[in-house]
Amino acid sequence: MANKLLLIIFSVLQFLPFLCNSFNPDSPNDRRVLVLLDDFALKSSHSLYFNSLKSRGFNLDFKLADDPKISLRRYGKYHYDALILFCPFAERFGGSINQAAIVDFVDSGHDLIIAADVNASELIRDVATDAGVDLDEDPSAMVLDHSSYAVSETEGDHTLIASDDFIKSDVVLGTTEIDAPVLFRGIGHTTNPSNSLVLKVLSGSPSSYSANPNAKLSNPPSLTGSAISLVSIVQARNNARVLIAGSLSMFSNRFFRSGVQKAGSPRKHEKSGNEQLLVELSKWVFHERGHLKAENVRHGKAGEGDEPAMYRIKDDSDYSVEIYEWSGTAWEPYVADDVQLQFYMMSPYVLKNLSTDKKGLYYTTFKVPDVYGVFQFKIDYQRLGYTSLSLSKQIPVRPYRHNEYERFILAAYPYYGASFSMMVGFFVFTLVYLYSK
Fold first, then answer.
1. 366 has which bridge partners?
2. Paired strand residues for 390
3. DSSP calls for 88-122
């Protein structure tokens, strides 16, 4: 009996580390991250980037991409909350991971970082395509720029680019401006302009183009100018986030620490903007910024505390909701002036901007329309860089009962008069007809 008790205690202790590392929805940065590498040497050559994640509480699990024992989930439950692919040359993944498994991982609401590079494998290209971007079809092509290249001691082939064409978004890149250009050497990609879920974070300059630097350019390049994206992000409809970069080197310690001088600029920066850009992007990808939650959604008739089972047409209705944003350490009130409420049945009958007390509470009052049916209180909040909020509560709206209509309304007096005058006229006509000769 004692042996069985010891066995049970030992089994529970084995699961304690897993329970401690399980994902807490109220703490988006308490997460386990699987990092797939082409070579374990990347752990030291890219240690600054990995250390920035560890310092913020992430638990990184490093594996080779072809490790036969790796898996994202077991018995239907995911072991990891995010995936980093630093394996641009992997022809296949080991274990149970494949292209479909990664798509399912993102579809389940998990986050993904992809670092592609020149001569990236078809597998990585297909994963990037599933994420919403298309890498240059020529596997040996690189982004070249003869105007915005990084000045170095050797002239080189201008494949080392100094780019500063950043997206204008504080929620994606943080409030601190990136002062220095970012060093980039790698492959370019394009995004579909009609896909509103994909955003270019770092773009090529108007003079950039994609081609093989070791081959003579006989035809005009297919990718040119600012249409080339160097780094892109995706926020899926389920709020999963994806980062796609065309260079693995831009995450390296060498690029983090290198000084940079953009061609044509007299200023030389002691440190490139790579570390600031990629660290800030990792905060966004892993929901340390721009992550919203809504709670305490309430509605009711004006002056009444409880939610009614239904409304009557022309009732006055109060609606309120609390919205908070994760700051990386705590939930803080989200302040905006563009949160809208729809009172919806097939189309919005009421559309109102919500007022806010700047402490997280959003509220409004409106009159229920003179239309009965099944309506929804609906908030569908989509804002660049923020997780989307989709809230709805269904409520029926009934017409007046027969005994709820107002009696003897002023507008009906002519009809009342017509009715009584008809009765009086008929009475007079009857008397005249019966008693006159």
1. 317
2. 380
3. TT-SS-STT--HHHHHHHHHTT-EEEEE--TT--H
Q: Structure tokens of 312?
A: 């009557």
Tokens linked to 346: 């097939």
- Both tokens assigned to 156: 């080189």
- Return the axis-axis angle of helices 274-285 and 47-54, rounded to nearest 10°: 40
The whole-angstrom separation of Cα 129 and Cα 222 is: 17
SS3 state at 59: strand
* 127: phi then psi, degrees, rounded to nearest 5: -65, -40
Query: Which string of DSSP letters, residue by residue, matches 13-39?
Result: HHHHHHHHHS--TT-TT--EEEEEES-
Question: Which whole number is the average pLDDT over 330-340?
Answer: 91
Summarize pLDDT for 234-282 with one digit per residue, the tens: 999 999 999 999 999 999 999 999 999 888 888 898 999 999 999 999 9
- The angle subtended at Cα 334 by Cα 330 and Cα 336, nearest 5°, is 165
CA–CA dist 268, 72 (Å, integer): 44
Decide: helix, strand or coil at residue 226. Answer: helix
Interval 273-332: pLDDT, tens: 999 999 999 999 999 999 999 999 999 898 787 888 899 998 899 999 999 999 888 899
Give Cβ neighbours of residue 276 (< 8 Å, ≥ 6 apart).
Answer: 176, 178, 180
What band does 151 get if pLDDT is binned at 50, 70 and 90?
Answer: confident
Q: Which residues of 303-325 are buried (b: 16+ CB within 10 A; e: fewer)?
A: eeeeeeeebeeebebbbbbbbbb
In the numeric block, which tokens belong to residue 242? Answer: 């994806």
Burial of 408 (0-12, 13-18, 19+ CB in 10 A): exposed
Phi, psi of 202 (to 5 degrees): -130, 120
Angle, alpha carbons 56-81-88 (nearest 5°): 90
Strand spans (E) along 195-307: 198-203, 208-211, 229-235, 241-245, 291-301
